[in-house]
Task: structure prediction
Amino acid sequence: MATILVFLGLNFWSNQLDDLHIQDVKIYNTFFAMENGKPTFYLYGKLKPIFASYSGGAFTQYNNSNGSNYGWNTSKNNVYIDGQQTHSPFGSKEVVFRIKSDSKEGLTLLNQNLYLTDHHHHKIKIYDAQTKTQPYSIDQKDTQKFIKQNKLH
Result:
């Protein structure tokens, strides 16, 4: 009986949603693509710790059950992206974020700096709007080429 209770307790703990911790993510690629005529930003990464699995991205802004805001937040020049993880060793380690440009929501993307953030106020700059560079992009000329090909400014 004690073994079952310990197992259930560990299972409950490991599946609780938690803020995605910056130090837990290894980013291996970022890029822009066009979707339905709008620039869309993608980030691909992997969680490093054994007791972590990815559990939510920035497809849209949403609230979890405890009222915390996950997804993205904007200011005039910046977009802050955050997500969720669990402590399960069995879940997916792949981290994927996809954010589509939406001027009504203040997401111009190409004209805003993009940051991966967590609730501990840590952040990683993943796109610089002034220089049009992405430090984690496999091909650094990717953004300029994307802008030219799609006649964006």
